[in-house]
Amino acid sequence: MTVRCSAKGCRDDASWVLVWNNPRLHEPGREKQWVACGDHREHLSTFLEVRGFLRRVDPLGAPPSSPRLS
Which of 45, 47, 54, 41 is nearest to 14 (CA)? Predict the structure, then answer.
């Protein structure tokens, strides 16, 4: 299965996982994910970061860099 970039209109394969959480909507342990291609990683990361949502960016397919709560 191919994982596609989350950027609007992009059909490229994703290579990054952007892990985020909106503290106004989600409990602290909940992690949401967007995936990004190399061209959109910075744009999507910045979008989340300026809102205080971005937790971390992991390579797609790599073990998580911090424990995930279910």
Answer: 41
- How far apart CA 8 and CA 24 sit, in angstroms, is 24
Helix (H) or strand (E) holding 44: helix 41-50
58 three-class SS: strand
pTM: 0.84
State the Cα–Cα distance between residues 15 and 26, nearest whole angstrom.
25
pLDDT band at 56 (very low <50, low <70, confident <90, very high): very high
The Cα–Cα gap between 7 and 23 comes to 22
| 43 in Cβ contact with 5 (< 8 Å) | no
